[in-house]
Write a structure and sequence with these properties.
With 241 residues, the protein is α+β, with helices and mostly antiparallel strands. It is built from 5 helices and 5 strands. It has helices at 2-24, 74-100, 110-146, 160-194, 228-234, and strands spanning 31-36, 41-47, 51-56, 61-65, 157-158. Mean pLDDT is 79; it is low at 195-211 and 227-241.
């Protein structure tokens, strides 16, 4: 029962993390910068993996999609690939987790279900690591440009999407680790139970070494020998009956 509860908890964590990672890709504000006026913010510049936009004080946004994938900076291409890989790995991890969990009726024997659940945990861990790498790479580029005194272009700060991606990555890694450790603990306990063998008392039956049909003759007592006097005394009472 405890293993089942642990797997359900791990599935909730990993699924929540996968949803957060999936929502990070189309989310705006991977990086954001604003121009402040005397009273209000005059313009807000923000960008994500697909476009760069500017929003004025009236809330009107003007966006420009990135023209070509091959003309993009290398870090944006790497972030795109890592995020897509994270979403795909999380999807397959969720499918394998549903098959391998003990609360479901599919997946075959307990041993095969344990292997499937462990494989699902590995997929979730890889998904979290891919998303974590993508968000960290993007954040490193933002911070390096922000603190570079020789960089004269528009400087940006960390956007909300990066924090959502980091949170989803942590949930996926934690849930995947719980999946793997729960399977290892359950297999260890089952092996310890099956490894105990009862050593019963040794058989005391003795099989004769003589071949069939040649049984050893049993010793017989010789018949009692009666003397003539005792035989006469024995039949005195019934002599005339």
């Amino acid at each position: 029962m405890s293993d089942m509860v642990t797997e359900i908890l791990a599935f909730i964590l990993t699924t929540s993390g996968w949803v957060l990672i999936s929502s990070t890709i189309p989310t705006d504000y991977w990086k954001v910068s604003s121009l402040d006026g005397t009273v209000i913010t005059t313009a807000t510049y923000w960008s994500n993996l697909w476009k760069a936009c500017v929003t004025d004080s009236t809330g009107v946004s003007n966006c420009k999609d990135f023209p070509s994938m091959l003309a993009l900076d290398g870090y944006i291409q790497a972030c795109r690939g890592l995020m897509i890989a994270a979403v795909c790995l999380g999807f397959f991890g969720a499918v394998f987790a549903l098959v391998g969990m003990k609360c479901t009726k599919i997946g075959g024997s307990d041993q095969s279900k344990a292997r499937t659940a462990c494989f699902a945990g590995v997929n979730f861990i890889l998904s979290g690591l891919c998303s974590l790498s993508a968000c960290s790479l993007y954040a490193h580029r933002i911070t390096s440009e922000f603190f570079d005194p020789m960089f004269v272009a528009q400087k940006y700060e960390l956007g909300v999407a990066l924090f959502i991606g980091w949170a989803g990555s942590i949930l996926c890694v934690l849930g995947g680790g719980i999946f793997c450790f729960s399977v290892v603990d359950s297999s260890t306990r089952s092996s310890s139970r099956t490894g105990y063998a009862y050593g019963g008392p040794a058989s005391t039956s003795h099989v004769s070494s003589h071949p069939r049909g040649h049984a050893q003759p049993m010793s017989q007592r010789p018949p009692p020998k009666y003397s003539s006097s005792s035989r006469a005394q024995h039949f005195d009472k019934n002599a005339y009956v």
